[in-house]
Fold this protein.
Amino acid sequence: MVTSHESDHSVARFDVILSGGGLVGLTLGVALADAGLEVAIVDRLDPATVVDEPFDGRASAIARGSQHVLAATGVWAQAAEEAAPIYDIRVSDGRIGRRPSRLFVHFDADEFAEGPMGWIIENRMLRRALHARAHALPSLTLIAPASLDRAERRDEGVIASLSDGRKLHASLLVAAEGRNSPLRKSAGIPVTTWDYPQSGIVCTIYHAHDHAGTAHEHFLPSGPFAVLPLPDDEKGRHRSSIVWTEKRDLVPGFMALDDHAFAAEIQRRFGYGLGEIKVEGYRWSYPLSLMHAERYYDRRLVLVGDAAHGIHPIAGQGFNLGVRDVAALAECIVDAQRLGLDLGSDPVLARYQRWRRFDNVVMLATTDGLNRLFSNDLPPVRLARDLGMGLVNRFSPARRFFMRHAMGLVGDLPRLVRGERL
């Protein structure tokens, strides 16, 4: 990877320009460059900043299909040691301060005989792995910190003008800028949005007992409360990531608590299954919403990841949807290049949209429905969902069906998701 900081008023030529160097943007850039395309990533943040611990204390769930993508593009070799495998998932229903329902769903990796069902990794560690892989790819150029001021999308290609005066030319421009994508807005692509009356709280906890590779999803009336395994720290302390969905108006009060009182609130919700809990370091909160773009492309412009869709974190599938976007788009682009087609033409981008739209809409509807179903404390609803979980837990084909969906191994899978190179 070439990292560019200097101002140059000449026009640099690439096959693809990506606006946004977050997790999804970097993954796509690496996938395309690994396949031999000339790729430029323009990102407003300094690469040295985004891998620092204070930048982002969040963690991502890596489904098995996403791990296949990262492995096939050479990223997983850098990330594997920093990821905690998930061997068991326990889904339960309950109320604060009370024992969870006796009816629950238990997913066990031994049923699949395929190793872990997924992994949890801190975002900063995944960024480090992506940057390390990117540096090994000579056809990938990272231009950062920089911003894309203007994009002229013409019949013959894209001219991107940067804030420092540089100009880039390519056949295709990719928006990987997140939910508030300026490129999506400038193209006039409408979106459907829904604000949940909830916010997410994210932090890392330390606990007395080993999590043994078990992830917990505990449904409470205010929303799901997830405890996700992380690797032990350098001192050998056991760690997990907390993703706590709470009523939005209560979140400022919880965020203002000192570490001891904040840990006590977590203990009230989760119990003592991992022993005594301690909280140190940073906490983050953010409002939760649903968002879906009406279309995924415009003339020589295509949306990936959160620029195209944003979902509730109830199932930890946000990053995995973005990775499946990456795998499908990369395959469409590489196939077009090998056939001598225009990478930014409407038929190429329409193929990508057809491939990804249904999967994304299904996941949007599923996560929204689950959140509405479980963030409801009416006794008849509680009874129905608890009986439903009990039935799924007793019926192994149903468990396998849901688990393979969560692992991203169902449907028309791109080559990268199958673990094959482009």
